[in-house]
Amino acid sequence: TQAGSLKTRLGSLKTRPESLKTWLGSLKIRPESLKTLPGSLKTQPESLKPSMAEPCCSSSQYGSEELDRLANRLSGTPDPRKRYEYVLWLAKKLPSMPADLQTEDRKVQGCVSQVFIYAALQDNHVHWQGESDALITKGLLALLIKGMSDLTPDQVLAVDPAFIAATGLQASLTPSRANGFLNILRAMQAQAQALKNADEAMDS
User: Fold this and answer.
1) Among 91, 108, 111, 144, which one carries the catalytic annotation?
2) Which own/partner pairs from 106-114 qualify as long-range (CB within 8 Å, at least 24 positions apart)?
3) Does the reported pTM lie above 0.90?
């Protein structure tokens, strides 16, 4: 009986190579399936291109990120007196404008006080200098200079005047001062347009 059982075991062993061949045969298809992996990997960078091309920052609400921050800061200050004090602080921080730049053609029209604004174009970005003989008006000027510094002429022209209302400063200003605030913005945009026209004329 032991010999018979041994034959049975040997018989079962003979079938194992066949089963191994079958298993090895199944392995042969794996390299074929793996061939598709490099192709699929190649598509990954392509699929990433749209997301990489998207801008990292959303467009600003009023024309620049700094204008947005200023509007949010001022509108988020419930006390009108605090907003007024911030504008006066900006006035004191604004560098003085050289007297030789304070010419009639740079004077802002429609303001109660004397206001001068000067724009210069450097590497297609506008840089400002300004002056006023009234501290509060100088603060409003400084606010706009801070929010519109280092913009291109086109970006300056695209600034939304709604920024002025968004600051909530009307509660702290007389109607004539509030109107002067808008006139300063318009004068800055007019100078940006003039710089753009001059630059385009030089290139043509």
Assistant:
1) 111
2) 106/191, 108/180, 108/183, 108/184, 108/187, 109/183, 109/187, 110/179, 110/180, 110/183, 111/137, 111/180, 111/183, 111/184, 112/137, 112/176, 112/177, 112/180, 113/137, 113/180
3) no
